[in-house]
Amino acid sequence: MGRARRARRIAQAAAYGGGVGVAGLGVLGALGYGLLRVEAVMTRRIVGQHFEGAPDDAGRYGTGHGQPVRLVVLGDSTGAGMGADHPHETIGATVASGVAAFSGRPVELTNVAVIGAESTALGEQVDRALDAVTEPDVALVLIGANDVTHRIDTSVAVRHLAEAVRRLRGAGAEVVVGTCPDLGALEPVPQPLRLLARRWSRDLAAAQTVAVVEAGGRAVSIGDLLSEAFAAEPHVMFSKDRFHPSPVGYARVAAALLPSVCAALHLFGELDSPAPDRRRGEGVGPVAVAATMAVTRPGSEVAPAEVGGQARGAQGRWAVLLHRIRPALPALPALPGSGASGGSGPRPSPATDEAEDDVTTPAGTPGAYA
Description:
Blueprint: H1 3-16, H2 29-47, E1 59-61, E2 69-75, H3 77-80, H4 91-103, E3 107-111, H5 122-132, E4 138-142, H6 145-149, H7 154-170, E5 174-178, H8 193-214, E6 218-220, H9 227-232, H10 234-237, H11 247-264, E7 283-286, H12 287-294, E8 300-304, E9 312-313, E10 316-323
Parallel strand pairs: 2-3, 2-4, 4-5, 5-6
Antiparallel strand pairs: 1-3, 6-8, 7-10, 8-10, 9-10
Helix pairs in contact: 1-7, 1-8, 1-12, 4-11, 5-7, 7-8, 8-12
Protein name: SGNH/GDSL hydrolase family protein
Pfam families: Lipase_GDSL_2
Region (Disordered): 333-370
């Protein structure tokens, strides 16, 4: 079964009840599960102990004029900032400072993220967030890693995330969700756990993306954003526990999230919704396809879209896939027999991802994925 189909199945189970297995463990059997338990114990010894807490980053950022932008952060230790040494080094603080700079207004940050939180804890966090800020302008949610490591039923995790997004949207907030990071990118995790963790992480991230877009939010792929940097400079990108990002690592994640948060707040004008560029693998199509492509390219945003004035097609909700952090385009090779430059956009690598031949994008769809 391809990842797009699994993402749809998980999202449907989340919407209508029922389960699809605990983080994908059902396909492994008792023997595989026993092996994972041993590997998990080894990993905890390698990674080391967690920090005692995270810096309190709540407060006002920026000195602009006008009413403050009200930003709330929800989620797990990544949202809380475990591994940061100073309140200004967290993802929430970095995003708040960026929004203040782009908007020319101060930003009031309220952080209700909890270290160790799973998606099932988001309901309580939304309660606390809305008690503190009745009408937030934007909410940033970072969740998923503990759902994988604690073996939470994926459809249950996705259902709680979708409900949190709906409640925040109902309170008038724009919602940006940083989906599950790729736990297979962590070098201290031994094989075969790393390979399985990568599959579970990406499956959960794809399902989260489908559910977030269905609920009216924007999903941003965190993926293996730190993997190459971790391999090159682990002492720089990761904190002393070798699991949570360092302040430099948090800045890298915040840089991927900030453009989507600013776009959600309409700070970029017409660039809030740029025309998809097929040469970069961007486009409009079924949300499950967009979700599958996003998990293989960190920093990708998937957001609700319409085709011909319709929000849904035969394969579900329409979505736009954007790479808001846009590197320079490489020279495109000429297609055989074309006599001109051309080519399709980037696709998931067959060495690291599964073929998605179970989904087709209707021919002629405006901006359809390359």
